[in-house]
Amino acid sequence: MSVLLLGSKSTSSWGSCQKISANLKASYVHAAESEPQGFFEILLLDPKEFFKPSQISSDLFSEMVERGTRKVVFVDHSPHPKNFIFALKEQREELYNNLEFVFHVYGDFTLLAKDWYELFLDGSIKATFICSSMKQKKMVESFLFDSDSEANVLVIPFPVCSKDHFFDMDLRQSMRARLGLAKDSFVVLYSGRLSLQKNILFIIEEFSKFFESCSVPPTLLLAGDVDDLVSPMCEGRLPLGAHFYLLRRAWLKCPEPVRKNILFLGNVPNSEINGIYCASDLLFSPSLYHDEDYGMSVAESLMTGLPCLITDWGGYSSFHQLKLNTDLI
Q1: Distance, CA of 167 to CA of 154 (rounded, Å)
Q2: Which residues, in sequence order, are bridge partners of residue 104?
Q3: Cβ distance 74 to 6 under 8 Å?
Q4: Cα separation of 55 and 87, whole Å?
Q5: Distance of CA 95 to the CA centre of its chain
Q6: pTM of the predicted model as reported, rounded to 2 decimal places
Q7: Over the chain, what is the mean pLDDT?
Q8: Distance in angstroms (rounded) separating the CA atoms of residues 170 and 6
Q9: CB atoms < 10 A from the CB of 69, how many?
Q10: What are phi and psi of 102, to 5 degrees?
């Protein structure tokens, strides 16, 4: 075994991170099909094995030595790999010195700044960071590599499965009928968490203006759960239910015909979200989320041919730089 892929048995609380993790693992499995048997292995650890070096079994390190492991890839954003690597260095320093570590960067990377700093403090670790966008690459380079550590930073966008996200006219028509959408209604979609930093209040306000300019009433679909997260950098949250109250107040301010054409869909299962993309005519995502490192809803939308109106923010910028079917606000 030359490559060990390490992941967590627990599931991320973030919907987008659940998709990213699953797609990354599937991509590695697909890539390994062309390699010799034993070249590649996936191992899922209990999260508690990451928390304290003393809880990490030395048996795994012995097995890595026996199998000739030369590269360890971390595919999940949580728990942080710091303690696992510290335990490895303490128990098997020779193995540690011969290993390259690969980190896929996503899911609140900036909130764990202290852990990343401690991991790279002595400059001994050999690492490659795989970022999903150019702005994220710039951030990681400026944040981590003022030290003498040997590290590379690559940009490889997160994979999206073409079997899950594609355009289908029959699916478009059936989903529009299911949602009760008028045949000629222009449908604007937002997909993701309904969080304050995602600017859902702005979406409602702008849609109300857009509605007044249209001869045929358009429709706004809001696909996602409401949360009260304000600023994770400061552990900030609105009081329970406060963001829902703000959204409801913004909705009530709209004229009645506009309100009737704003549909709150709640959390849409992965098995149905492609139908929502197909039924829509524009994805509108004015996110200013603090750690918007990529944009899974944008990538999935583009797979279905859905044009996107997005901010020049974080990972969103790369979609526009690549001259994909996007416009910037």
Answers
A1: 30
A2: 130
A3: yes
A4: 9
A5: 32
A6: 0.88
A7: 87
A8: 40
A9: 19
A10: -120, 125
Query: What whole-number distance in Å separates Cα of residue 7 and Cα of residue 79?
Result: 9
Confidence of residue 167 (pLDDT cuts 50, 70, 90): very high
Helices (H), the chain: 15-32, 48-51, 58-66, 82-91, 93-97, 113-120, 134-144, 169-178, 200-213, 242-253, 256-260, 270-279, 296-303, 316-321
Residue 213 in tokens = 């300019």
DSSP letter for 183, please: T
Identify the CA nearest to 113 among candidates 136, 144, 92, 134. 144
What gap in Å lies between CA 290 and CA 108, rounded to an integer? 8
Q: How many residues does the chain have?
A: 329
Q: Please name which of 232, 214, 218, 222 lies closest in space to residue 284, comparing C-alpha atoms.
A: 222
- Rounded CA separation 111/263 (Å): 33
Residue 312: exposure state from Cβ atoms within 10 A (0-12, 13-18, ≥19) = exposed
Question: CA geometry: angle at 280 spanning 226 and 264, to 5°?
Answer: 25
Label residues 148-167 b or e (16+ Cβ within 10 Å = b).
ebebebeeebbbbeeeebee
Q: Are 190 and 222 in contact (CB under 8 A)?
A: yes
Q: Which of 20, 23, 21 lies closest to 6 in space, CA to CA?
A: 21
Beta bridge partners of 285: 310
132's tokens: 């999903």
Q: Do residues 37 and 23 lie in contact, with contact meaning Cβ atoms separated by under 8 Å?
A: no
Cis peptide before 36 (omega within 30 of 0): no
Contact in structure between 49 and 57 (CB atoms under 8 Å) = yes
Q: Across residues 171-175, what is the average pLDDT?
A: 97
Residue 81 has a CB neighbour count (10 Å cut-off) of: 20
Tell me: pLDDT of 38 over 70.
no
Instruction: Check pLDDT > 80 for residue 151.
Output: no
Burial degree of 317 (CB within 10 A; 0-12, 13-18, 19+): buried
Q: What is the mean pLDDT of residues 21-32?
A: 87
Instruction: Give dist(CA 72, CA 85) in Å, integer.
Output: 10
